[in-house]
Amino acid sequence: MTPDAVDSPLPRLDILIVDDEPRIRSTLGMCLRDDGHRVEAVSNAREAERAADRGAFDVAFVDLRLPDGDGLDLIPALLERLPWLKVIVITAHASIESAVEAMRRGASDYLPKPFSTAEVRLAARKAAELRELEHRVSALEEERESGRPALLLDSRSPAMRRAVATAREVADTDATVLLRGETGTGKGVLARAIHDWSPRSTRPFGVAHCPSFPAELLESELFGHVKGAFTGAVRSNAGRVVRCDGGTLLLDEVGELPGPLQPKLLRFVQSREYERVGDPDTRRADVRILAASNRDLEAAVEDGRFREDLYYRLKVIEIELPPLRERREDILPLAEQFLRFYARKHGREATGFREEARERLMAHAWPGNVRELENVVERAAILCRSGEVGPAHLPLEDTERAVAGVGEDVTLAELEEEHIRRVVARAETLERAAQILGIDTTTLWRRRREYEI
Question: Is 99 among the domain residues?
């Protein structure tokens, strides 16, 4: 690509300019602002570090010679604060040695002075394209690793088809979406699909699993903190909203959000404004918020555990994902696709399911939903080295005996409690029990507390 070939529009970038010459700062800033980018210009390394602590930048143009230090030393300092940053070194003292050293320290490009505005635009474009490529590679690696997204969304169930159709319809908007459904129904997969179908698809997608963090640390995880903000804060943390700037952030199990953090999230959803922990400066981040919950949020609102105004802000669009027991027509197709995927992954030659195994899969209650089915089939793919999977490869006997031994007046919650009790008693560790159930350990811990197991 030549400088003259820079025609197609770029996404808006946040750009930091670090140069001690006012003329260079002015020229670079004017050129980049004319292209629609947001620009902050500073004259030395200390100001650059403070700027990186305050805000999230996509690209930095850094002069190698600064009044208070070497630009080469500034590169790793900036990357420690903003790991995704693309650093373009600019200097009048070009040499192969300095270029190699700059790249070794993390720079992505090298621009010798004097340079034209076309060369500046080209450097910004290359940096933006490199960020986009990294995002795409990351997304492809995630999809290849899991093998689940397209598989889970290709459903025969009318209820699931409606959920996917609604997600497609709202994907190209910035509307907040609340995904409802039991653990393991595919809320995270559908959230990722909404991002991938949206205009934000080339920007970051992040997930914050709310129950995974202590209440006092979740705010820092979302909005970031400055060095020294609390005991153990030995360096600044940008926060997930900054890492997802321009993209999408999924708040998983949002019903577990601590009360003191709820008004701060409400403010961010409304205005995209926030403050980092320990920093009074107000910041902005362009992030689309998706939320997921397997809890009864209406009951939480009634009980005063969840803010009503936040609840309505999050459910501008509400999508309900049905449990697997209500989309039984998907059980065998999903099982067959999971079997093919995991047989390839683990180097096995399992080819399908015997009729008895199919009957067992269809008879199971699947309290852990699709995630439980996936775990069961992965285990079967490993144990059945070749040929067809039989009943002995499916660890469902305890559940089937429990189902057979109960009357019609037993509730699903009671059945779930009994199933969890049996699996926990049988499994060697809680981690293994969670894997068998198709849920994470946090959810299992919560279920054990709820059922007093």
Answer: yes
